[in-house]
Amino acid sequence: MRSRAAGALVLAASLLFGAGAQAQSFVRGDCQGHLALVAPRYDTANHALWYKRFWTGGCDPQIPRCIPGQPNWNNMVTTLLKRGSAAQRPAVLAKACRVGELIGVEWSRSKTIRKIDLDDLRRFNRDLENSSDPLQGLDRLEASARAKLAGR
To answer: Which run of H or of E encompasses 24?
Structure first.
């Protein structure tokens, strides 16, 4: 009896882990190992679709008033990696992926509850573009995002 219960638990855990990994498949491959082990919790189906939009720039037909295109976080990571030195790239990759997850999950929430909005994304983008060092820019961006989330 215990072996069946243990088997069911292992099966359930593998299904949950697989669903989380599949839900994140739109995130660039080299970011996968830097994201949280558990997929984000989405408030609604639209939250999940907007989170995907944040990373890819593509709009699902179910998203109302979505405009596809740039910028998107997968491309932002590429830009930051190009700007960093060879020695910085592993740290830039890890930081950019984690910061993208932090910002994206919040930005993609319903307008009535989110703490990071489109104007914040535009400011974050400008700040990263104007930063001479991608790691320092990401550190400032993360601090700014966490400050906005602290009011929760």
So the answer is: none
